[in-house]
Amino acid sequence: MEFNAAEVAEFTRGEVVAGSPQALAVNWSFDTRTMGPESGFFALTSDRDGHEFVDQALAQGATVVVVSHLDAAFSVSPINQAVVRVDDPAIALRDLAISARSRLTGAVAVGITGSAGKTTTKDLAAAAIGTKKNVHANIKSFNNEVGTPLTLLSAPNDTEVLITEMGARFAGNITDLSELVQPQIGVITQIGMAHAEHLKGRSGIAAVKGELLAALPASGVAILNSDCDQSIELAKRTSARVLTVGRSDSADVVISDVVVDGDLKTHFNLSTSWGNSEVHLSLRGAHHVNNAGMAVAIALEIGVDLEEVVENLALVEPNELRMNVVCTDAGITIINDAYNSSPTSALAAIAALRDITVPGRRWAVLGEMLELGEYSDAEHQLIGKAVTDARIDKLITIGSGALALAQGATGGDVSVTSVADLPAAISILDSQLEPGDAVLIKASRAIGLEVIADHLLGRPVR
Predict the structure, then answer these.
(1) Nearest to 128 by CA among 253, 231, 261
(2) Which terminal residue of the chain, N or C, has fewer Cβ atoms less than 10 Å from its own Cβ?
(3) GO MF annotations for this entry (predicted)?
């Protein structure tokens, strides 16, 4: 979305202090590594101070930079670049996003939250709607106080459907994001234990996720998971119409006859008031079935025909590091689910490892699930028990934070090894993996287990 420097200054209560007020930005970023031409650059402060990169941004072609203080070293073209000074670039980013949202007067906004499945449901919903409408969705997992404003700022003016996933680590986060997005459709995929440390357990998580429902207008639609025991209470948070999706016969969109093939691809039947259909997915794992059901509900509410929705869903491929199934030249099957981990998604991944058809052994290489706080040991032990119940052959846990996971797996038939770091895990795998084996790789994002997958696949280390 286009804003010139003068407009940026007006909407953020700042001032143009260098360059031309007519300098125009058409893309927006806070990261010079991903910045395109004619970009607006916000000098945000987190692990690094974004002001350290302003010169680099300008040299790479940024046309408008938003800062809180000036540096004499800034080199600004007087014709097509500008510097806007504001009190706080993070607040300015939000303020400009509010202006961007106000331009999308005809767009239907969809907010998606939940303890797992947000990104997949968002991607499936965008695909399901297809070319029927002009759809704009957040990239990757841009779902917080920085990613959501950037999603709004990157929306084309002719956007008809805006899809945003909403993450939360603290109470009030989703209320803040909803004020920006102004959703008419709100989706809660499920309530698990992700971020339990900050959100005070499952009931606290439900309360925060329910902020999305409270933000919906009475004319809106809340889409809830009928298989989640929190949904009945969540429905009380909204005056909007409630649509349920799940495997219960009482759901509005009923999922039935789920089949998972040996490659982890699924097909299932859907029964809806819009009609009935069989759905085939290329995504791997039975847990994607409910995500797909939610996406179908969104698309049907938007006005897409069921037949078209089903055709579109069949074409969706998995995102990087999310249930990517690849066979190495050595004949070893890698289930790379290293993007992130929570109790809910870890259980789903273990089920996938159980279900995949391979002639050899099944290995689970698991690291810590972060941000569980006082619930950490109990939740890790439950995952360890799930590994045993799934009859996995080998379990490698990595790091001291995953020791409780190893403890949960003791006493069963699984062979358990705990190692301190990634190199130790790689050494075991290199020496013991055999053709025909399958390896699941999963941990919270900060653990960096994708390095193991890259090694086994012969890729350069990231």
Answers:
(1) 253
(2) C
(3) ATP binding; UDP-N-acetylmuramoyl-tripeptide-D-alanyl-D-alanine ligase activity
Residue 81 near residue 23 (C-beta atoms within 8 A):
yes
**Residue 69, both tokens:** 């203080």
Name the one residue in this structure whose structure tokens are 């006082």.
Answer: 374
Closest of 158, 156, 152, 154 to residue 177, by C-alpha: 152
**pLDDT single digits (tens) 77-91:** 889 999 999 999 999
| The model's pTM | 0.93
Burial class (CB in 10 A: 0-12, 13-18, 19+), 221: buried
Strand partners, 83: 18, 65
What integer best gives the mean pLDDT of the chain? 95
Which CB contacts under 8 angstroms, 24+ apart, belong to 243-246? 243/297, 243/301, 245/290, 245/293, 245/294, 245/296, 245/297, 246/290, 246/293
Domains 3-88 and 104-313 share a fold: no
352 close to 386: Cβ distance less than 8 angstroms = no
Six token digits for residue 130 = 């297809």
Q: Please give the torsion angle defined by the CA atoms of residues 142, 147, 153 and 156, in that order, rounded to the nearest 10 degrees.
A: 10
Asked whether the beta carbons of 100 and 1 are under 8 A apart, the reply is yes
Query: In the CATH scheme, what is the code of domain 104-313?
Result: 3.40.1190.10
CB contact set of 135 (below 8 Å; sequence gap of 6+): 126, 129, 159, 160, 161, 163
Question: Splitting the chain (462 residues) into consecutive groups of 10 residues, what average pLDDT does each group show?
Answer: 97 96 96 91 92 92 94 82 97 98 96 95 96 93 93 96 95 96 98 89 94 98 97 97 96 97 96 98 95 98 97 93 92 95 96 97 97 95 97 97 96 94 96 97 95 87 52
Q: Which superfamily does CATH assign the domain made up of 3-88 to?
A: MurE/MurF, N-terminal domain (3.40.1390.10)
pLDDT in tens, 101-116: 999 999 999 999 999 9
- pLDDT at position 37, please? 87
Q: What distance in Å separates the CA atoms of residue 20 and residue 128, rounded to the nearest whole number? A: 43
